[in-house]
């Protein structure tokens, strides 16, 4: 991070605060995506040596940057139990019934993906992705899963006949429960009810909810809200940050380009009885204009949490025109954050840098910076 700020940003910044570590080193993820492959591989990229069709099958993770190579997983320590047992159950059942696993080269095979989501209450959502309708999956595997794991409160089936693994644009058939989980998050100040968030099969939510609270609390504390501010939440996603702040400011305006995420944000606002959040779904670079500011008001402070690519240049230009008193910049990519901070440096000074460890045992951190307007 320091290297990014020095080499890319070339800006002045205070001493980087110690990383906020994650106390929960294992079983911290609330979402895992597994891939079925007709041929499993070793971690060094070598194929397995057997020619037995079933013995070659694998259900696990892709090797880095290799779309057609999957490492079969026996024990995953990233998600709480019974996540591991669910995956092993599906693998054992599909192998015993000789259901064909997907071949990435030939683009054939029935079993494609298994997605396992959970919440902090220990409830699970399981999404099975297959290439075509199959009676064994529908009438045998899914009922068997339901009976074996009462923790599964949401069970969905997706049929994906496409050549890629993207399922966001496909129908989700809910075969058990509701097509969502409910996650909770503590309020940043005592004396307030927990916030509730409905998480659907394709909803974005921080994969480490335990650290997400620390991440948002860090942003909240750095913002030092006074209660009467107009806040803008850029790249709001499902409105998590917007609603986290909403009880302690006058109004929040959230912008996000994914319509489904904004739909979730509005539903979550209703669940939490929040009335002072307004959400817009549009391309940030197009909607974040002078007319938008004139219509919604000039913000007192801004929270921005862009994707790994960072903020669009037009968004940065608009921030320089607005000249809000404070910007809290939450980033999952310190390199693009450093680039954006350099662009903002003419008008803003970095006052605090607080990294948060969201992914234990990896080099990745989220980073929160407080920027204040220069005199």
Major sheet attributes: 8 strands, mixed
Unreliable sequence segments: none
In what order do the strands lie side by side in the largest sheet? 2-4-3-1-5-6-7-8
Order of helices and strands: HEEHEEHEEHEEEEHEHEHEHHEHEHEE
Broad CATH class of the largest domain = Alpha Beta
What's the number of structural domains?
A: 2
Question: Strand pairing plus helix content: what structural class?
Answer: alpha/beta
What CATH calls the topology of the largest domain is Rossmann fold
Q: What portion of residues belong to β-strands?
A: 25-35%
The tally of helices reads 11
Query: How would you state the average pLDDT, rounded?
Result: 93
Radius of gyration: 23 Å
Just name the CATH architecture of the largest domain: 3-Layer(aba) Sandwich
**CATH homologous superfamily classification of the largest domain:** Vaccinia Virus protein VP39
Helix content: 25-40%
Overall shape: globular
What is the number of strand segments? Answer: 17
């Amino acid at each position: 991070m320091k290297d990014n700020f020095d080499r890319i940003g070339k800006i002045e910044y205070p001493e980087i605060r110690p990383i906020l570590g994650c106390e929960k080193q294992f079983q911290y993820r609330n979402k895992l995506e597994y891939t079925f492959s007709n041929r499993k591989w070793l971690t060094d990229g070598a194929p397995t040596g057997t020619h037995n069709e079933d013995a070659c099958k694998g259900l696990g993770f892709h090797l880095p940057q290799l779309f057609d190579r999957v490492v079969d997983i026996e024990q995953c320590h990233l998600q709480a139990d019974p996540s591991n047992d669910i995956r092993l159950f599906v693998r054992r059942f599909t192998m015993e019934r000789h259901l064909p696993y997907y071949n990435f080269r030939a683009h054939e095979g029935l079993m494609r993906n298994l997605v396992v989501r959970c919440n902090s209450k220990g409830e699970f959502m399981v999404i099975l992705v297959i290439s075509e309708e199959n009676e064994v999956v529908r009438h045998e595997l899914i009922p068997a899963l339901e009976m074996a794991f009462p923790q599964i409160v949401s069970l969905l089936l997706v049929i994906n006949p496409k050549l890629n693994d993207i399922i966001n644009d496909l129908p989700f058939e809910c075969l058990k429960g509701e097509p969502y989980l409910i996650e909770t998050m503590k309020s940043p100040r005592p004396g307030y009810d927990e916030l509730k968030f409905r998480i659907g099969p394709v909803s974005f939510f921080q994969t480490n909810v335990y650290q997400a609270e620390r991440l948002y609390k860090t942003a909240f504390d750095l913002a030092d809200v006074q209660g009467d501010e107009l806040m803008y939440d850029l790249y709001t996603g499902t409105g998590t940050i917007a609603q986290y702040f909403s009880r302690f400011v006058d109004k929040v305006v959230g912008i996000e380009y994914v319509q489904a995420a904004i739909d979730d944000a509005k539903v979550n606002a209703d669940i939490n009885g929040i009335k002072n959040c307004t959400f817009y779904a549009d391309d940030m670079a197009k909607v974040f204009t002078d007319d938008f500011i004139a219509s919604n008001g000039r913000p007192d402070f801004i929270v921005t949490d862009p994707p790994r690519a960072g903020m669009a240049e037009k968004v940065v230009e608009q921030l320089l025109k607005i000249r809000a008193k404070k910007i809290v910049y939450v980033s999952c990519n310190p390199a693009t954050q450093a680039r954006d901070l350099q662009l903002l440096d003419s008008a803003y000074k970095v006052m605090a840098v607080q990294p948060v460890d969201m992914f234990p045992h990896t080099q990745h951190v989220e980073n929160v910076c407080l920027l204040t307007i220069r005199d």
